[in-house]
């Protein structure tokens, strides 16, 4: 799943190639990904890209009226993309001019012709669980999922972060990945953060002492900013592999912990899993690998 560092890198890459340039055409291969109908997706054609940025894990492309638009044109139309678990953006300098077949079995959901002539990107989704979502709105606040996001993890202060943890009744793993509580962190980077902070995924968020909260706050910032720095300037096609090379525990089940040498363990659920080091994080105890996981006694 693309998380804050990858979405930030994608936004920076696309912004550098489209800002100030027009959207020539938008092709929709899967109407199911469109969560809004007004303005229609065709309204993006001819508009100028003002900027591409991120909000949490959402990709946000703001557009302004083009030179051929009349005075009644919308002053702002925003394309919002949530790549979800299996979505991705593929940039091309030689984007196919043939529209993808609607309802086809391929991974392409949306194609946006933008930037210089011949350039643009496909929004794709692998697998059978279709969770990719696209909104075309006049203001990002119209997207309910964005309106209900918690504060961005890199924009909050230590006191605000501590208050959020103190008011939470959940386990720290769940708090870090709940976008309504904190925006930006997903499954992979929460594993990395908790490993670096030496905290159990099942630790109660509200019981962390001040020293642990300090460490966790600093760790979130260091892990995410290090990832952003590592991905900065990379081609979009390389971001997935670059992300994997920077992970120390996530998706490394059975391999030695790079800190202590213990074996990285996994807790698996129905459709996802997370990884941790028993020595570094749980006092040597192994977490039960079942849906209702508890510490083995």
Automatic annotation (TrEMBL):
<comment type="similarity">
    <text>Belongs to the FPG family.</text>
</comment>
<dbReference type="InterPro" id="IPR012319">
    <property type="entry name" value="FPG_cat"/>
</dbReference>
<dbReference type="Pfam" id="PF06831">
    <property type="entry name" value="H2TH"/>
</dbReference>
<keyword id="KW-0479">Metal-binding</keyword>
<keyword id="KW-0234">DNA repair</keyword>
<keyword id="KW-0863">Zinc-finger</keyword>
<protein>
    <submittedName>
        <fullName>DNA-formamidopyrimidine glycosylase family protein</fullName>
    </submittedName>
</protein>
<dbReference type="InterPro" id="IPR035937">
    <property type="entry name" value="FPG_N"/>
</dbReference>
<keyword id="KW-0862">Zinc</keyword>
<dbReference type="Pfam" id="PF01149">
    <property type="entry name" value="Fapy_DNA_glyco"/>
</dbReference>
<dbReference type="InterPro" id="IPR015887">
    <property type="entry name" value="DNA_glyclase_Znf_dom_DNA_BS"/>
</dbReference>
<dbReference type="InterPro" id="IPR010979">
    <property type="entry name" value="Ribosomal_uS13-like_H2TH"/>
</dbReference>
<keyword id="KW-0326">Glycosidase</keyword>
<feature type="domain" description="Formamidopyrimidine-DNA glycosylase catalytic">
    <location>
        <begin position="2"/>
        <end position="104"/>
    </location>
</feature>
<keyword id="KW-0238">DNA-binding</keyword>
<dbReference type="Pfam" id="PF06827">
    <property type="entry name" value="zf-FPG_IleRS"/>
</dbReference>
<dbReference type="InterPro" id="IPR015886">
    <property type="entry name" value="H2TH_FPG"/>
</dbReference>
<keyword id="KW-0378">Hydrolase</keyword>
<dbReference type="InterPro" id="IPR000214">
    <property type="entry name" value="Znf_DNA_glyclase/AP_lyase"/>
</dbReference>
<keyword id="KW-0227">DNA damage</keyword>
<keyword id="KW-0456">Lyase</keyword>
<feature type="domain" description="FPG-type">
    <location>
        <begin position="248"/>
        <end position="282"/>
    </location>
</feature>
<dbReference type="InterPro" id="IPR010663">
    <property type="entry name" value="Znf_FPG/IleRS"/>
</dbReference>
<keyword id="KW-0511">Multifunctional enzyme</keyword>
